[in-house]
Amino acid sequence: MTKHFYGWRKSRHSEPNGHCVEAGQAADGTIGIRDTKLHHSPILEFSPREWRAILESIRADHA
């Protein structure tokens, strides 16, 4: 069964041409990530804990 993700948000680092990475959330808290450059982009799914770890790692690299 495919999860329904809602509240898709663009990355603040998106290209001005509309191609971007978006994050959405499913009712169970799963975070979905998709690439809008691809017409049928797969959605990568992360638990809230996995998503926090990814964001913390990215922020640490930019500090």
Topology:
Layout: E1 5-10, E2 21-26, E3 31-35, E4 44-46, H1 48-61
Antiparallel strand pairs: 1-2, 2-3, 3-4
Organism: Actinomadura soli
Biased composition (Basic residues): 1-12
InterPro entries: DUF397
Question: What fraction of residues sit in β-strands?
Answer: 25-35%
Total discrete domains: 1
Give helix % range. 10-25%
End-to-end separation: 39 Å
Structural class: alpha+beta
The H-and-E topology, N to C, reads as: EEEEH
How many beta-strand elements? Answer: 4
Which regions are unreliable across 5 or more consecutive residues at pLDDT < 50? none
Rg from alpha-carbon coordinates: 12 Å
Word description of this protein:
It is built from 1 helix and 4 strands; from the N terminus they run E-E-E-E-H. By secondary structure, it is an alpha+beta fold. It has one domain (about 5-60). A 4-stranded antiparallel sheet has the order 1-2-3-4. A hairpin with an 8-residue loop joins strand 3 and strand 4. The radius of gyration is 12 Å and the shape is flat. The termini are far apart. The model has no long low-confidence stretch (mean pLDDT about 90).
Features:
63 residues, alpha+beta, 4-stranded antiparallel sheet
Explain briefly what this protein structure is:
Residues 1-20 are annotated as: Disordered. This protein has 63 residues and is α+β, with helices and mostly antiparallel strands.
